[in-house]
UniProtKB/TrEMBL annotation:
This is Rieske domain-containing protein. Keywords: 2Fe-2S, Aromatic hydrocarbons catabolism, Dioxygenase, Iron, Iron-sulfur, Metal-binding, NAD, Oxidoreductase. Residues 49-159 form the Rieske domain. SUPFAM superfamilies: Bet v1-like, ISP domain. The keyword Iron applies. PANTHER family: 3-PHENYLPROPIONATE_CINNAMIC ACID DIOXYGENASE SUBUNIT ALPHA, CHOLINE MONOOXYGENASE, CHLOROPLASTIC. Signal peptide: none annotated.
C-alpha cells in the first residue's frame, strides 16, 4: 500500500477531534476539507470493507460493473466459473483503462492501447508479439490484473484493498441482524430492480452517511409536507418514537421508527409478510414487525432506507427499499449511487409498485431526495468557509441514554429514535481509522 505521510500537526488535530467526539462535539470543517479528504482516502477507504455491487447486478457469467474504492476504479465481474472477482481497471502493460463502460458482458477484456487480453477473472491470456517482442522474458502468470479481495453477505459484494483487514463477517458484526431486514425479505433474499441512479453532487459523503445512520430529527422539518399531505405513515408527533441501534466499535447504525398502532409489516403484501415471518429469526420478527421506518448506514459509506410510502396521499403505503453508496471524489464532492431493492420472490406487481414509490420519493429526482440534497449541499458549502475552521457541532442528544433492556436486538439500543448516539458511534469509528487505530 502507498505510504501515509501525515504531518505531526495533522496527527495532533485528529487526536483532538477524537477527544471531542467523546464529549459530544465534532468540528464543522471536516465536512469539506482537502486535508481530511486526502487522509480519508489513505486511512479509511484503503482499509475498510467498501461496498462494490449487489450480486443481482451481475447475474450471468461475463456480466460486469465498474465501481470504486477511493480513487481506484475496479472491474467487478462474474467469471466463467460463476465466481465473482474484482480487479483494478488498469492494464498491467502501460496502465490503460481496460473497461470504459460502467456495465456490460464480456468473457475477456482487451486493452485498446497495445492489445493485452485478460480473462474476466483477471488472468493475462494474450500478449501480441509475445514470441517476437518479449523472447520469453515475461511469464503471463505474473502479469494479470491486480486483484482486490472480495467477500459477500446476503447478496452484497464488498471489497477491501487492505490485505490485513478482518473478515467481512467480523467487520459487519452484529449489524447483520439489522441488515437482514433489507436483504432477507423472504427465503430467496432481495435483488436490485433496474440499474442504479447515478449522479454527482456538491455534498460531502459524511453528511449523507450520517443522515442515513438514523437522522429522524430532520424528517418533520425537511420533509414536513410529507406528513401534511399524507405520504408518510406517521405524524410529526409520533415520528420520534422508536429505537436508535448502533454496534459499538464498528461504526454501523440504524434508526428504527415505530408508530403506535401501526399494523405489523404494514406495506408488505400479506404473503410476503408471512414469508418474512418464516425466514427471519423470532427476535428479528419481533423487531421488524413493529418497525415503520428503518434507515441505516454500514460504515463507511453504504446506506439503506425502508419505509411505507403512500403514492396516493392518505391511502395505505407500499414498502420500498433504497440502497445507497456515497463515493467521495473530492472535498465536499460525492458521486452518488442509488438502487431500489425488492424481494426476489415478490410478485411483479409489487416490485413495480415498490419501484414507483422509490422513484417518486428517493431516486435521483425523488421529491424527498431533493429536500435532502439541497440541505446537504448548503451544509457542505458552509463547512468549507474560513470561519468554519473554528466551529463545532453539538452531538449531545442522548448522551446519558442507557440501553433499552427489553429490546431483543443486538448493539447499543436506546430510545427514542431521534438520538445522537448512532452518530457518536459513527464518528468514533471514523476517528479510529483517521488516527491510525485500525
Amino acid at each position: 500500500m502507498a505510504t501515509d505521510p501525515v504531518s505531526p500537526g495533522a496527527e495532533a488535530a485528529l487526536e483532538s477531534i477524537r477527544d471531542g467526539i467523546a464529549k459530544g462535539r465534532f468540528p464543522a470543517h471536516v465536512f469539506n476539507d482537502r486535508q481530511i479528504f486526502d487522509i480519508e482516502r489513505q486511512r479509511v477507504f484503503s482499509k475498510a470493507w467498501c461496498f462494490l455491487a449487489h450480486e443481482s447486478e451481475i447475474p450471468d457469467r461475463g456480466d460486469y460493473v465498474t465501481r470504486y474504492i477511493a480513487d481506484n476504479n475496479l472491474i467487478v465481474a462474474r467469471a466463467e466459473s460463476g465466481d465473482i472477482h474484482a480487479s483494478l481497471n488498469m492494464c498491467r502493460h502501460r496502465g490503460n483503462m481496460m473497461c470504459k463502460s460502467e456495465m456490460g458482458n464480456a468473457s475477456h477484456f482487451r486493452c485498446s492501447y497495445h492489445g493485452w487480453v485478460y480473462k474476466n477473472s483477471g488472468e493475462l491470456v494474450g500478449v501480441p508479439y509475445m514470441k517476437e517482442g518479449y523472447e520469453g522474458r515475461i511469464d503471463k502468470r505474473d502479469w494479470g490484473l491486480v486483484k482486490v479481495r472480495t467477500q459477500t453477505y446476503a447478496g452484497l459484494v464488498f471489497g477491501t484493498i487492505d490485505p490485513d483487514a478482518p473478515p467481512l463477517e467480523e467487520y459487519l458484526g452484529d449489524f447483520r441482524f439489522y441488515l437482514d431486514l433489507y436483504l432477507k425479505q423472504g427465503s430467496s433474499g432481495s435483488e436490485v430492480h433496474g440499474p442504479p441512479d447515478h449522479w454527482v453532487t456538491d455534498t460531502d459523503w459524511k453528511i449523507a452517511a450520517e443522515n442515513f445512520a438514523g437522522d429522524g430529527y430532520h424528517t418533520p422539518v425537511a420533509h414536513q409536507f410529507g406528513f401534511n399531505l399524507g405520504y408518510f405513515a406517521s405524524s410529526g408527533s409520533t415520528h420520534s418514537q422508536g429505537w436508535a441501534a448502533s454496534i459499538p466499535g464498528k461504526g454501523h447504525g440504524i434508526g428504527l421508527g415505530h408508530t403506535p398502532g401501526f399494523p405489523p409489516f404494514a406495506g408488505f403484501p400479506e404473503e410476503l409478510a408471512d414469508e418474512m415471518r418464516r425466514s427471519l429469526s423470532p427476535e428479528q420478527v419481533e423487531v421488524f414487525s413493529q418497525t415503520r421506518t428503518a434507515v441505516g448506514t454500514v460504515f463507511p459509506n453504504l446506506s439503506f432506507l425502508m419505509q411505507p410510502f403512500s403514492i396516493v396521499p392518505g391511502e395505505a403505503g407500499v414498502r420500498f427499499v433504497t440502497m445507497r453508496l456515497y463515493h467521495p471524489i473530492g472535498p465536499g464532492r460525492t458521486e452518488m449511487y442509488s438502487w431500489c431493492l425488492v424481494p426476489k420472490d415478490a410478485s411483479e406487481q409489487y416490485k413495480r409498485e415498490a419501484y414507483r414509490a422509490y422513484t417518486l420519493a428517493f431516486a435521483q429526482a425523488g421529491t424527498f431526495e431533493q429536500d435532502d440534497l439541497e440541505n446537504w449541499a448548503r451544509v457542505t458549502r458552509s463547512a468549507g468557509s474560513t470561519m468554519a475552521r473554528d466551529i463545532e457541532f453539538p452531538y449531545v442528544m442522548g448522551m446519558d441514554s442507557v440501553r433499552d433492556p427489553d429490546f431483543p436486538g443486538p448493539g447499543h439500543v436506546v430510545t427514542p429514535y431521534v438520538n445522537d448516539s448512532n452518530f457518536r458511534n459513527l464518528w468514533s469509528r471514523w476517528s479510529d481509522y483517521m488516527t491510525g487505530q485500525v
